[in-house]
Amino acid sequence: MLDPDAIRGTTVEWRPARAEDAAIWVSVTRRSADQVTFEAEDAQIARYKEENPDLQAQRYLLWRDEAPVGRLRFFAYGNTAELDGLVLLPEAGGSVAAQVVSEALVRSAALDVRHLKATYSAAYIASFAGAGFQELRRRTGMTASTDLMVPLFPLPASLRVREMLPDDGEQVGILLQRAYAGGPDSLHPDVAGWRAEVRAIQEGRFGPFIPESCFVVEHSLDRYNLVGAILVHLEHGVPRIRHMVVAPAFRHVGLGQFLAVKSMRRLHDLDYATALLYVTLGIPAVNLYHRLGFIETGPTYIEAERMLLK
């Protein structure tokens, strides 16, 4: 007969991560096998403490036998709940991921939402697939030196590249919708969602915006629709290329490479030595990033979704 105390001892408990838990949160992050660390430990602790109240409310530490074994973020908006930032220590064991998934489903049901979205390392795929999650896309992080040796070839004379202005957000949102339509990176159902994401980037909600390294491209015959754009912000102290897109009709003329090289050269001038991006595996842009010197760093992440019965 199983010992009830032993059973309880294997249970993973979600506890809200408080301000005074900063050192524990950072320690779990740095000890995990599937995290790439760009910041010093002190900087990570400071960033944890400086998060706004909305982000603080999303944080949970995972405890087993009064010892931390992982951390995650869980939050809800509209009819959707989201599990993100799942990090488990190597010694946690396979059962911890399965318990996390079960608890996320129970919490989502209690919140009466229709969808549960999750982002997790491919190491945990069995636990999520076994619970009925449908994979949406796989992404991996890539980094490169901003000190590029790639030449900047001139573009056709009808294309004009300039720095992105604050008022460009609406048009960049339209471009993102056009560029991602029908592909795995089409994350928003309408242009309003893309415009909201651009505003969030410009306002620094994903990390400090770096407008000096953000560019848009116009065509001389159509000043009302942008044909290319690149958006960059800081993530953990490293510039992240959040979006680099070209309108479908203007691809294969070297515009994507031109934007990337121009932006990374500007980052180098700003004394940033490294650039970071996350790319969806299997898309043509992966080959471009390799040509620019980007290499895969860290694990593959899976974005998945499960519908909840009402």
TrEMBL record:
InterPro entries: Acyl_CoA_acyltransferase (IPR016181), Bact_Acetyltransf (IPR050832), GNAT_dom (IPR000182). Keywords: Acyltransferase, Transferase. The keyword Cell cycle does not apply. GO terms for molecular function: acyltransferase activity, transferring groups other than amino-acyl groups. Residues 12-154, 159-310 form the N-acetyltransferase domain. PROSITE patterns: GNAT. This is N-acetyltransferase. It comes from Ktedonosporobacter rubrisoli.
